[in-house]
Amino acid sequence: MSEKIVVGVDIGGTTIKVGICSSEGELLQTYEGPTEVEKGSEAVCNNIAQYARHIVEQSPYNWDQVEGVGIGIAGFLDIPNGIVKLSVNLHFNNVNLKAFLEDKLQKKVLVNNDANVAALGEAWAGAGRGVDNCVCYTLGTGVGGGVIVSGKIVEGFSCMAGELGHMSIVPDLEAIQCACGKMGCLETVSSATGIIRMAKDAVERGDRTSLSFVTNIMAKDVIDAAKAGDEVASRIVNRAAFYLGKSLAAVAVVLNPQRFIIGGGVSNAGDFLFDQIREVFKKVTPDIAQEGVEIVPAILGNNAGIVGAAGLIIRS
Amino acid sequence: MSEKIVVGVDIGGTTIKVGICSSEGELLQTYEGPTEVEKGSEAVCNNIAQYARHIVEQSPYNWDQVEGVGIGIAGFLDIPNGIVKLSVNLHFNNVNLKAFLEDKLQKKVLVNNDANVAALGEAWAGAGRGVDNCVCYTLGTGVGGGVIVSGKIVEGFSCMAGELGHMSIVPDLEAIQCACGKMGCLETVSSATGIIRMAKDAVERGDRTSLSFVTNIMAKDVIDAAKAGDEVASRIVNRAAFYLGKSLAAVAVVLNPQRFIIGGGVSNAGDFLFDQIREVFKKVTPDIAQEGVEIVPAILGNNAGIVGAAGLIIRS
Predict the structure, then answer these.
(1) What pLDDT, on a 0 to 100 scale, did the predictor assign at position B1?
(2) Tell me, what's the ipTM?
(3) Which CATH number fits domain B131-298: 1.20.1300.10, 3.40.50.300, 3.30.420.40, 3.40.50.150?
(4) Is pLDDT at A1 greater than 70 in this prediction?
(5) pLDDT per residue over A247-288, tens digit each?
(6) Does domain B5-122+303-314 have CATH number 3.90.190.20?
(7) Which of residues 41-80 of A touch B (CB under 8 A)?
(8) Residue A216 Cα, gap to closest chain B Cα (Å)
(9) Helix (H) or strand (E) run with residue A263 in it
(10) Which residues, 6 or more positions from B304, have their beta carbon under 8 angstroms from its beta carbon?
(11) Which pLDDT does position B300 carry in this prediction?
(12) Is the CB of B147 less than 8 angstroms away from the CB of A284?
């Protein structure tokens, strides 16, 4: 067994997930251990190094086969230098993760943000396999994104490319403020948080909806109610899909990607949601910019992070 | 003189402009001749070849120094294969321009659309010199665009990247139909045509404006009236700038380019227009995605096309 392998690391606030991938993006082994944020950033960095070594030691592969280690992390990064400028969850403040790990592991280390890395995972080895240009949306607490051009992540001038959730897309008259401080961002309406907010507003307002009998409304409750024909819930899901579709259309004329990949909890609504997004996209995108363009669900689920992190080594 | 040179060709409906550039993007010589559309596509292709040879023969350089010939042309293209699928102005229908010219000239030939090529010209040797990632808008009859990532044109899946004028940005309630058939495209409000239409609408409606004394309203008249304090004209220019600013903000979160470059006739309005665009951009773009990002005027004017066409050879 002399083929090359790559190691991907997905750093979360509670656990650090590591995986071994083949150079074609096949996920061969996974392992996870505690992050131990409370012990400080050096301990977290040591854990990353230890888990990366450990997974290879416990596998049929050996450390010499490792071509490099890729890292996905939430936070503000200096991607070229692999520095975590700020990660609130991890209490990282100007941590030179790349330098630390390259020293510890004696391998090439690349660091990128979690949304970009998940997008690369899908593009490389998931729903975008074989497609050079794709754009990924992750509909979760916020709306994350990643842009892949010619097989590589577009990072942008200050590492802010792919911040699709902060596209100002809701017209001023109906816009509300986003967590980022600006008005009308996509994630105010198309994230789980946005959907829940709109549902709670409707219930508080006294709209007649089955959601008023739900004690702790989740995005799934709203989607289920919409599927069951609840008019208020339908309007909310429709609105989330409308602005998503408009956002995809905007991206389509900027980059004309071959495929849009949509993942995250909200995307589990399936065709019910996707059909609405596709309809809006079709309506507002110039015909020649939508011809052959696909809007598909993500397929790697929670593994997108480790696969994409490993992919950094192959696709850089 | 043994340094390499590149030849750029900008094909218009009336004239074909050719230029010699240094490999650093300095425009060394220019020449132009009639397109002769009426003689048919083969005659036009022969003219291109002849003018390209001619400019070099008349220069202090020789044909052996030519590294390649780049072509910018308006129309629907198969860029990788250099085929002009349809160019209405030139009456081209599935013309394999690359193959024809490579055979005639015995040099590498690259073909791209006029808006992409103008963007590359500015990025390579104009207002974007030294900047890897920039996005260009050309405000003319329509709104053209070009996206440069890592120094290269992003072409997209069906060569439709950079169609910034067709971003659906005007909310449904105030949207009108674009020439592309869709509603609310940027160019319905931010092109010269859009500005003229809004001005004529205002005059017909009976709005009190100095524009009602202008016989054949041009975009410049509207901008001049706005600068002079005409309220109706100010509202129109403000609207054009508002949606441009919103569009730039959308692009900023997708690609986070370092610089936006705005050219074309309407951009001659200068700071009066740019300040309004910058204000909207600042208001709606997340702070970290706008930090250090510049919005600047194009500087190459009509030469952007030939310089960018030459640049195709260097930046591919």
Answers:
(1) 54
(2) 0.95
(3) 3.30.420.40
(4) no
(5) 999 999 999 999 999 999 999 999 999 999 999 999 999 998
(6) no
(7) 76
(8) 31
(9) strand A259-263
(10) B117, B118, B119, B121, B122, B126, B263, B298
(11) 97
(12) no
